Amino acid sequence: MTASMIVTPTGVLKRVRRSVNELAESWPARFTIMVFSALILVFTGLLMLPIASADGTVTPLVNALFTAVSAVCVTGLTVVDMATHWSMFGNIVIMLGIQVGGVGVLTVASLLGLVVSRRLGLKQRLLAASDTNPMRAHHGPVSESQTVGLGDIGGLLSAVVFSVLVIEGTLTLLILPRLLILGEDLLTALWHSFYFAASAFTNTGFVPTAAGMDPFATDVYMLTVLGVGVFLGSIGFPVIFALYRFARMRGWRKPRRLPLHTKLTLLTTSILIVAGAAAIFGLEWDNGDTLGEQTLGQRLMTSLFMSTMTRSGGLATLDIDQMNGSTLLIMDMLMFVGGGSASTAGGIKVTTLAVLFLAAFAEARGYQDIQAFERRIPTEVLRVAVSVVLWAATIIATSSIILLHMTKAPLDHVLFDVISAFGTCGLSTGLTESLPDGGKYVLAATMWAGRVGTVTLAAGVAASTRAQFFRRPEERPIVG
């Protein structure tokens, strides 16, 4: 036997590392999907351990997988009682999944590389950049001006760590006194406060207490704190980074210096929250099972809170099952849009909606270019936006048809839970908890597809970009 034929553990590790590096460089979208899926399987295995359940029994595969997907995808849909089923070990595993899923798998990988190597190389920068802009996920060059340049990735990663620690820490301290007033002891209140804070900022929607959100249904202080946490998580780390960077540069006096992505995210998010609150307020005004028994101030606060939760927050102070069908449809639309790109929220993203609206406006006005805030948006961004919407609609339609056939449940309830799963929102009409095992797998796959992202999913299943050195003759079909 020659020396070249001898296989050593070190040689195997080198080959594996080389293969992983080649995959990450050649097909970052597929690498993202593989890492994300592998992470879910690891958390599923941990949640199936007897030590993870409160009664020391093995959690069935379907329930463990569903919970792992819901945690890593920061969705918040549940098929078990989160307050009583899991032990402290199980809750820690779920909390770890929430944090990793909220920050982003590739961002975490870049941070780990930074800790190990003590420097941020090009590979780590490219991985983190794929989290900050899904359009980087496809193979080949990206010609549009990036939301965050490669030179700023180090600062962005620092901002991610800083914002997670500071925002979740601040939210924990703000929630703690409220839970102490409810009579919880200090350690329990501290744990529940952190749980609420992480659940809000990551837009997950898990609740650690057996009473759920009922004690805070009309609590202005608690709803405000949680709502602010969800809003900050839903606008995205690039927006937080941009606001922090321009605040340091005294950019508040020159708002036009903010990136276009930041302006579109903040403006569209604000419009959707206000419009959604107005719709919920008007449609549920006389519904005795939701807003009908509340005072005017409570109705306004609840409507604003529920509208904010459709960003992807998932914390509900109203019984979704008792809402009018018209309200459910409005919330379907809001959950479908979701939050900002590269955020802890899901959906097709608010900037996707903004680009489509701006394209329609430009077409109506006869403009050749899509414009916003004195900037021109490239046509390729519009193509990606259209692709995202089509992929999202296809996934939602497929899942809805399958679940309708399985459960024979009302269409509005099935559609609501499916869109909530795809948008990683976590709001539910109660259908999810009653699903058969097959339905749980379908909804878990919907959550996975929604969190992986339609752009990354499309790029991952497609072959590498093919260069075409000719153009076909042009012919215009009739549309509209």
Protein model, in words:
- With 480 residues, this protein is mainly α.
- The chain has one domain.
- It contains 18 helices and two strands.
- Strands 1-2 form a two-stranded antiparallel ribbon.
- α2 crosses α3, α4 packs parallel to α8 and α8 packs across α9.
- It is globular.
- The protein starts with 8 loop residues before the first helix and ends in a 19-residue tail after the last helix.
What is the end-to-end distance? 71 Å
Oligomer: single chain
Number of strands: 2
Going across the biggest sheet, name each strand in turn.
Answer: 1-2
How would you sum up the global shape? globular
What does the largest sheet look like? 2 strands, antiparallel
- Gyration radius over CA: 23 Å
Order of helices and strands: HHHHHHHHHHHHHHEEHHHH
Helix coverage percent? 55-70%
Note poorly predicted spans.
108-132, 136-154
Subcellular location: Cell membrane
InterPro entries: Cat_transpt
Keywords: Cell membrane, Ion transport, Membrane, Transmembrane, Transmembrane helix, Transport
Transmembrane segments: 27-49, 61-80, 92-116, 153-176, 188-208, 220-244, 264-283, 333-361, 381-406, 441-463
